[in-house]
Amino acid sequence: MKKILLLIVFFLSIYCAFALGVNENTLEYEEPYILSYPENMKERGLEDVVLPDSPKRVAVLLTKPVRTLHALKVPLIAIPTAGALPWPDDLNVKEFVIPYDKEINIESILLLEPDLVVLGDYQYNTYGQLLSQMGIPVYYVDNSTPFTYENIKNEVLSLADSFDPDGEENRRIRESFALYEERAEDFKKRIEDQRVLIIQQQGNGLSYQTEGGTVGSAFKMLGFNNCYDASSGIGPFSYEKALDGDPDLIVYVGSSNSREENRMMFNEELMSNKEYWNSFDAVKSGKVIILENMHSVVHGVSIFEQQEAILAALKDIGY
């Protein structure tokens, strides 16, 4: 009778072990894999995503978090096609066209059998609800905030804390931000009351960019005051207002990722309005830098590439 009771207790313990989610070989509890949200997303009612294990097949349906997730070594199986900002050479996964004005071919994503799909918050009521109803876990990324330095940093660190909370890549990313901020503070000490005019090629016309824009935010970090004090990001360029700003530095962001093509476009602008541009002290003293279009479109950790490009361009003209 005693042996029978012992056997019953043994089998009950095994049953409870499986029911509670323990490893059958070690009889140790397997902790779930939790993807947490930053506070601004929790305030919208989103709850942490709880998975039985770390995701092995992740499909991403917006460009913004791709580079950061790749840097965190998240196993990606599908991403959107690259836009102005090209993907790294070692990111070799299936690319999908993600149209803004048409429906995504969700069936082609499902055929890849993802165990996690990353969406933008704007996709919550469409693809998010559909995928959730099908039992596929979904993690949302805030796509509504301006692409300023602080917002990009918060987004990157949030993803790092969710997908690699105690990992080496998380540590490296944090060190990269700390290093840049230290360099930016050192740069600020070398300039005083410097004003910057940032112009961006938009088709056949020009626009200005304030400190609320991606490039404008980067120059604000370095201590430059923008000639346009609005924080709206970008707007139609005004020749008269730009001249009144009396900039110490002019930044031209071209529409190409080729520096030479951008230089040619800017030279055409200079020649077509020669008298106007020659009235700028910045032009006469050579305080003009030209940036590729890719540096105006920053996604996650690509901000480090933008920072290096800007610092190198400033060094070339004597800063």
Proportion of beta-strand residues = 15-25%
Name the CATH architecture of the largest domain: 3-Layer(aba) Sandwich
Given the structure, what is the number of helices? 13
Helix amount, in percent?
A: 40-55%
Number of strands: 13
Assembly classification: single chain
Question: In a few lines, what is going on in this structure?
Answer:
This protein has 319 residues and is α/β, with parallel strands linked by helices.
Q: Mind explaining what this structure looks like?
A:
By secondary structure, the protein is an alpha/beta fold. The protein folds into 3 domains: 1-30; 32-144, Rossmann fold, CATH 3.40.50; 188-316, Rossmann fold (3-Layer(aba) Sandwich), CATH 3.40.50.1980. It is built from 13 helices and 13 strands. α3 (66-71) links the parallel β3 (58-60) and β4 (76-80). The longest helix has 23 residues, at 168-190.
Set down the secondary structure blueprint.
Blueprint: H1 2-19, E1 33-35, H2 39-42, E2 49-51, E3 58-60, H3 66-71, E4 76-80, E5 94-96, H4 106-110, E6 116-120, H5 124-133, E7 138-141, H6 149-163, H7 168-190, E8 195-202, E9 205-209, H8 214-221, E10 225-226, E11 234-236, H9 239-244, E12 249-253, H10 259-272, H11 274-277, H12 281-284, E13 288-291, H13 303-316
Parallel strand pairs: 3-4, 3-6, 4-5, 6-7, 8-10, 8-12, 12-13
Antiparallel strand pairs: 1-2, 8-9, 9-11
